[in-house]
């Protein structure tokens, strides 16, 4: 069993310095990049593994309870957490180990301040959701004290579970263009991760290929109120031919937009498709019912937990990434895609 003291002796520095670096606090303590590099290389060469829970899982005995942290950003995505939590609970019911899930709210760009990640004293493993670019940079330069799986993000050295963001945007464009739409608008909040921008750009490109010319509206608040106010502002300002297609960055935005469009008394409502990241029953019961490119959040949560258990149990020889399929669900707000084969967009 390799210890921090052994790493310190090998590198020729104090055990305190090694502990600071492996704990992710090197930058704030102004430890040089060269020293950090030596410590990480030595830790990897010696096979340092700080997580006691991982060893007990590999040996088939040990800790009575594995504590898994679920880190979720404190922003507009808070309402989406229930779906992810439901997926985790469903997977827990299939496992034969005693696992306690603990929610750790955090602020984007401040992942390095979450003590559970930099110490093995709070939990044995973590699933990180909604990490920002700054958070991913922290992960890239830090060897965490516990095993980690990333939800809908990728970072070298970490397991992750993702969806194809480009396909999500393209499916929305195909659904609208196949219904004969030719003038479209995108209503979404300010991007908080790269995948949001990928979805929009893919929508614009795929739409143009199929005769749907679209533009991006000024960013709205990522809420039902934001969608309501954004749609009213857009259509009230239009003169001449109204847009006949609306692509919304979330279910919440779409629900607000649908209300606004009905209130405006338009001669014909535009077709509407949204990224389906909200509660499915709300999409099904809205008026009209909302067509979505469905984000399989529950299954992604289950896959995150499976990966975490595989990683801790040495069933993986290196970090793995898994890509789940997004699919289009037609409802009243927009009809089906003509070509029912949705796995690829030609």
Explain this structure:
With 346 residues, the protein is α/β, with parallel strands linked by helices. The chain contains 13 helices and 12 strands. The strands form 2 sheets. The protein has a 6-stranded parallel β-sheet with strand order 2-1-3-4-5-11, covered by helices on one side. A 6-stranded mixed β-sheet has the order 7-6-8-9-10-12, sandwiched between helices. The protein is elongated, with a radius of gyration of 23 Å.
* Percentage of residues in DSSP E strands: 15-25%
Helical segment count = 13
Structural class from helices and strands? alpha/beta
Q: Strands across the major sheet, in which order? A: 2-1-3-4-5-11
Describe the main β-sheet briefly.
Answer: 6 strands, parallel
Given the C-alpha coordinates, what overall shape results?
elongated
Task: List how many beta strands DSSP finds.
Answer: 12
Give the integer mean of the pLDDT values: 89
* Low-confidence residue ranges: 51-62
Order of helices and strands: HHHHEHEHEHEEHEHEHEHEHEHEE
Return Rg in Å. 23 Å
Ends distance: 53 Å
Approximately how much helix is present in the residues?
40-55%
Task: Give the structure's gist in a few sentences.
The chain is an alpha/beta fold. It is built from 13 helices and 12 strands.
Features:
six-stranded mixed beta sheet; alpha/beta; 346 residues; 41% helix; six-stranded parallel beta sheet; 13 helices
Task: Explain the layout of strands and helices.
Elements: H1 4-11, H2 15-22, H3 33-46, H4 52-59, E1 66-73, H5 81-92, E2 99-106, H6 115-118, E3 125-129, H7 133-140, E4 148-151, E5 159-163, H8 165-178, E6 183-187, H9 194-209, E7 213-216, H10 224-237, E8 245-248, H11 251-263, E9 271-276, H12 280-285, E10 291-294, H13 297-312, E11 321-324, E12 327-329
Parallel strand pairs: 1-2, 1-3, 3-4, 4-5, 5-11, 6-7, 6-8, 8-9, 9-10
Antiparallel strand pairs: 10-12
């Amino acid at each position: 069993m390799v210890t921090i003291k052994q790493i310190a002796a090998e590198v020729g520095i104090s055990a305190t310095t090694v502990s600071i670096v492996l704990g992710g606090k090197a930058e704030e303590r102004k430890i040089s990049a060269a020293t950090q590099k030596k410590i990480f290389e030595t830790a990897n060469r010696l096979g340092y593994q700080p997580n006691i829970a991982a060893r007990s899982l590999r040996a088939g005995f040990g800790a009575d309870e594995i504590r898994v942290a679920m880190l979720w950003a404190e922003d507009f995505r808070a309402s989406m957490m229930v779906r992810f939590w439901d997926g985790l609970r469903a997977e827990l019911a299939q496992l034969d180990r005693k696992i306690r899930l603990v929610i750790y709210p955090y602020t984007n760009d401040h992942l390095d301040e979450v003590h559970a990640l930099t110490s093995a004293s709070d939990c044995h493993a973590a699933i990180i959701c909604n990490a920002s670019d700054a958070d991913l940079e922290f992960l890239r330069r830090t060897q965490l004290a516990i095993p980690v799986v990333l939800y809908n993000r990728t970072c070298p050295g970490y397991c992750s579970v993702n969806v194809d963001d480009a396909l999500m945007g393209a499916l929305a464009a195909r659904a609208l263009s196949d219904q004969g739409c030719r003038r479209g608008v995108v209503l979404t909040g300010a991007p908080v991760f790269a995948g949001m921008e990928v979805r929009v750009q893919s929508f614009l490109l795929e739409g143009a290929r199929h005769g749907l010319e679209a533009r991006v509206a000024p960013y709205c608040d990522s809420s039902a109120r934001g969608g309501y106010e954004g749609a009213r502002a857009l259509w009230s300002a239009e003169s001449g031919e109204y847009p006949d297609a609306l692509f919304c960055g979330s279910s919440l935005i779409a629900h607000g937009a649908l209300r606004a469009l009905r209130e405006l008394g338009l001669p014909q409502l535009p077709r509407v498709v949204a990224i389906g990241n909200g509660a499915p029953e709300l999409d099904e019961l809205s008026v009209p019912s909302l067509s979505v490119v469905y984000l399989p959040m529950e299954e992604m949560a289950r896959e995150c937990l499976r990966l975490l258990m595989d990683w801790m149990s040495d069933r993986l020889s290196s970090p793995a990434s898994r890509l789940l399929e997004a699919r289009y669900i037609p409802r009243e707000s927009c009809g089906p895609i003509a070509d029912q084969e949705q796995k690829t967009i030609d």
